[in-house]
Amino acid sequence: MDPRDKWRLRNNRVALLDIDTGEICPYLIQEGVLTPEDAERIGSKETSKDKTEALLNMLESKGSRAFQVFKDAIKSEIKREDLTKKLDNTDMSKMPARLRKEMKEMEDEDSDSADDGNVIITTTTTSQKRKKPVEGEEHEFKQKKKLFIGVKGNNNVVMSGNTITYNNTSRGSSK
């Protein structure tokens, strides 16, 4: 999860503790943010506040989509647009140094662009960097994750299902 979104969750934690997890967990499961096992772990907590704490803690480790899907759930399932506005209007100037450092590291990783002719494939949790990519080589990702691809020059990257194929179009080739 983006450090800014972690900060939004942490900075608004008290306001978010009123959320009934039973109303939004089905939506989060439907959208692939939580697993049924996650929902069971949340549901096993004793009090409503403990359940919400468990949900908020889990969300931080659920990838880049988790925060937006959580906000969508708040808005559509419990009709609390006031909470989504509160999250959106969080004062980022008070973000702790640790999260600022994490954000800078993510930005630095993203700025390691393909300036040197590399193809960079970055998911929300892993990054792979290959020097001199092999034309026609396929990379398969079995987990559903948000994917960012950076290429330089006359390159073509095609994503089909779970397969990513790189082709150098400067030589007029394609596969």
Automatic annotation (TrEMBL):
<dbReference type="GO" id="GO:0002020">
    <property type="term" value="F:protease binding"/>
</dbReference>
<protein>
    <recommendedName>
        <fullName>CARD domain-containing protein</fullName>
    </recommendedName>
</protein>
<dbReference type="Pfam" id="PF00619">
    <property type="entry name" value="CARD"/>
</dbReference>
<dbReference type="InterPro" id="IPR037939">
    <property type="entry name" value="CRADD"/>
</dbReference>
<dbReference type="InterPro" id="IPR001315">
    <property type="entry name" value="CARD"/>
</dbReference>
<feature type="compositionally biased region" description="Acidic residues">
    <location>
        <begin position="105"/>
        <end position="115"/>
    </location>
</feature>
<feature type="domain" description="CARD">
    <location>
        <begin position="1"/>
        <end position="75"/>
    </location>
</feature>
<feature type="region of interest" description="Disordered">
    <location>
        <begin position="102"/>
        <end position="141"/>
    </location>
</feature>
<dbReference type="GO" id="GO:0042981">
    <property type="term" value="P:regulation of apoptotic process"/>
</dbReference>
<dbReference type="GO" id="GO:0070513">
    <property type="term" value="F:death domain binding"/>
</dbReference>
<dbReference type="InterPro" id="IPR011029">
    <property type="entry name" value="DEATH-like_dom_sf"/>
</dbReference>
